[in-house]
Design goal:
four-stranded antiparallel β-sheet, 38% strand, 2 helices, Neuraminidase, 386 residues, 27 strands
């Protein structure tokens, strides 16, 4: 994928000032007005995916601080569970799930933005290099991995997803130029779904959803969403040709969310290279075969599905292109609801990302691009309008 976290996203995030985006506020889920978006917690740092935790708490990946935290939806109390990186150079947790007493954390790509300069060279592994597996570990890398750890405790397993990308290259695009400098983002793990037998990881940089066997640590490719080649993406410049791979034309799909739904279906949301209208939701069988595709969406950064198969997806900036976001105005963004007939309705939420149902209520991470201004909000189902 083109380095979407640089340029427009970074510039918008640095310029933004937190402004009210909610139609009402409460201290959690109980008794809230179902027609509004209400604040459960403020002051988070770059909240991305959120998921079930213990009791009435959710676990949230805070990408800007390098922390994984729990948020009590009743009291708003925040507790740090894990910290990645080191002071002054935090890691980048973007995805998180909790199962069997352990945290499963997707550490995303570090860097981006014009001030970072070109990425350093990467040595591609020689032909015949074995496909990597997860390994036991006591420390976490800084980025581009899935980390399994105890809350408040030790790292127990690391899955090197960057190495998997370098060896397997699921989307078959050119990875480096003649000087071994990456021509694109290689791996950027973004969200996690833990199931009984496997872990699914949406890797935005690899343009693939990966599957990790919970028993033997084997990593494999579950689903590669196709390039978007119509609409504004028709003829779009992408990765160059190389001796091994043809040139890529069109918008990268960039998977950002993965969720389960009824009948074992798997739902994947994509960013569509930040191009309005190029985002998609893919509905897959448990084995990764596409059975349905929802098109014409704006850049998506999270997804949830209710027990009836109604889809909720986060449009990061709504129908406003990110390079048109005005930092002097209230943050844009919305959550789109897509019912079983394909009808759509929307609830306004500033820069939404992760989505999760908890006790029948929909929660979202919001203001995710506002420094120190991130939120967890409750989205009343009556707040959606056509």
């Amino acid at each position: 994928m083109r380095r979407w976290r640089s340029a427009a996203v970074a510039a918008a995030a640095m310029a933004l000032v937190a402004q009210p985006t909610t139609a009402g506020a409460d201290s959690g889920g109980g008794g809230a007005d179902d027609t509004v978006v209400s604040i459960a917690k403020e002051g988070l740092q770059g909240p991305r995916q959120l998921n079930d935790y213990r009791g009435d708490k959710v676990v949230v990946a805070e990408s800007d601080s390098g922390e994984v935290s729990s948020v009590d939806l009743g009291s708003g109390a925040v507790e740090n569970l894990l910290t990645f990186g080191w002071p002054g150079s935090p890691g980048n947790p973007q995805g998180v799930d909790y199962a069997d007493g352990r945290l499963f954390v997707a550490l995303g790509e570090i860097g981006g933005g014009p001030e970072a300069g070109p990425p350093p060279p990467v040595q591609l592994p020689p032909a015949g290099t074995p496909v990597p597996r997860c390994t036991k570990a006591s420390t976490a890398p800084v980025a581009e991995a899935l980390v399994v750890a105890e809350p408040h405790g030790a790292v127990v397993q690391v899955c090197d997803l960057l190495k998997y990308e370098l060896v397997v290259n699921p989307d078959g695009q050119t990875q480096v130029d003649a000087n071994s400098v990456p021509v694109d983002s290689l791996s950027n793990p973004y969200s996690v779904l833990v199931q009984d037998e496997r872990i699914l990881v949406a890797d935005a940089g690899a343009n693939a959803v990966l599957s990790i066997d919970r028993h033997n640590g084997k990593i494999s490719t579950f689903f590669v969403p196709p390039l978007v080649t119509d609409g504004a993406c028709a003829g779009a410049e992408n990765n160059p040709a190389s001796d091994k791979y043809p040139a890529t034309v069109g918008c990268d799909p960039v998977p950002t969310g993965v969720a389960s739904g009824p009948n074992g279906r798997i739902y994947v949301s994509t960013l569509g290279a930040l191009t309005p209208g190029a985002a998609r939701v893919y509905v897959l069988t448990p084995g990764g075969k596409e059975v349905r595709r929802i098109e014409g969406l704006n850049p998506l950064t999270g997804i949830a599905v209710d027990h009836e198969g109604v889809v909720y997806a986060s449009e990061l900036t709504g129908d406003t292109p990110i390079d048109m976001v005005d930092p002097t105005q209230p943050p844009v963004g919305r959550i789109v609801r897509i019912d079983k007939h394909g009808d759509r309705s929307y609830a306004p939420v500033g820069f939404p990302q992760g989505l999760k149902f908890e006790n029948g209520k929909l929660y979202a991470s919001a203001l995710s691009l506002v420094p120190d201004g991130g939120q967890v909000v409750r989205v009343g189902l009556g707040a959606f309008t056509s």
